[in-house]
Amino acid sequence: xxxxxxxxxxGHSIILKDINFALNKGEIVGLVGRNGVGKSTLMKxxxxxxxxxxxxxxxxDNVGYLIEEPKLFLSKTGLENxxxxxNLYGIDYNQxxxxxxxxxxxxxxxxxxx
Length: 114
What we know:
Elements: E1 2-10, E2 13-22, H1 39-46, E3 54-58, H2 78-88, H3 95-104
Antiparallel strand pairs: 1-2, 1-3
Domain ABC transporter: 16-110
GO molecular function: ATP binding; ATP hydrolysis activity
Pfam family, one: ABC_tran
């Protein structure tokens, strides 16, 4: 998929401006950002639920996305949630591997918090 100069306006409000990127087949990506910055709008454009004001989307494959839905237990720590989700998705929890990912993603401060 290739996104070329995609912009989206609602009236005089510019939601997206000249967005450009390419994704390879089979690639899985995450889109993160503050509320109100256009993440949902961009996703709706990518799956053709909304049309851009300008720009092009070139795609020969189907695109799927998972909308925001809380998957964490507020009564459990970050580590407990991580272990639960690992098990749910059939991933063996390996302290060394996950520890390095936790550090790389700067999540250490949350791992023991509920």
